[in-house]
Amino acid sequence: MGEGAATVTLELYLIRHGESEWNRSSRYTGQQDIPLSETGREQARRLAHRLVGVKFAAIYASPLRRARETAHILGSITQTRVTLEPGLAEIHHGQWEGLTPLQVAEKFGSDYARWRTQPHTVVMPQGESLADVMQRAEQSLRRILAEHPRGKIAVCSHDAVIRVLLLKTLGLSLEHFWKWSFENAALNILQCSGEGDRRTWRLLRLNDTTHLDGIYSDCALQAL
User: pTM for the whole thing?
Assistant: First the structure.
């Protein structure tokens, strides 16, 4: 924590959506509007019940259905209004969307190999780069913090978006994209001290899934 940043002003709860139908079939989803599976809905309910005592100032969500459903389950149980934020949508996988990793490796071999080893160098065919995602996600976070500079804020989003937001707030480059793994309905908490350009961030929880109590998804098989 930086000097002079002892006063905590905000806690940011970064939440990955529950399991989707395409998570189950290991398909690149990107910006396809795929709903939660029944397992994903139960994961979201368990997350929400864990957070029932948290007084959120606001909940923000990607407009994609799997994140939106997760957010509305949380909002219903915590009695908090949900606001949709387009910049929180998942990375646009372009021509990869709907394909399995094996199919992508067969059709886009060199790009796929670089994505697994140097993700910051890849622009998805007819899609986005990590830099694109970082830019729009950071802009969304700035808008959220301008609207709610204090209190507890929940953001229901996606794997790639949560990765880049954590990298940005912790001062790490996009080269570290694969350093962490995020389960469905996982909870990540960042604590913010200071305001404006003097904000400093501290990571309190990373990929916390203790609330799921045995209904985990096999994220190692999912496509990102």
Answer: 0.94
